[in-house]
Design a protein that fits this description.
mainly beta, 4 strands, 56% strand
């Protein structure tokens, strides 16, 4: 899922980040122009 707000973007992707059966979504808020990452966090499930 991808959210746009001006030049900033928030994206999430479910993935097995660790060597077990758990899946997490990586939520990243970044600036499209500079690729600067403002925030990155693993969460159990992406929601709005």
């Amino acid at each position: 899922m991808l959210f746009h707000h001006g030049a900033q973007r928030c994206a999430g992707a479910a993935y097995r980040w660790f060597q077990d059966d758990r899946y997490y979504d990586l939520i990243v808020i970044l600036d499209d122009a500079s690729s600067e990452i403002y925030c990155a966090q693993l969460v159990n499930e992406e929601s709005t």
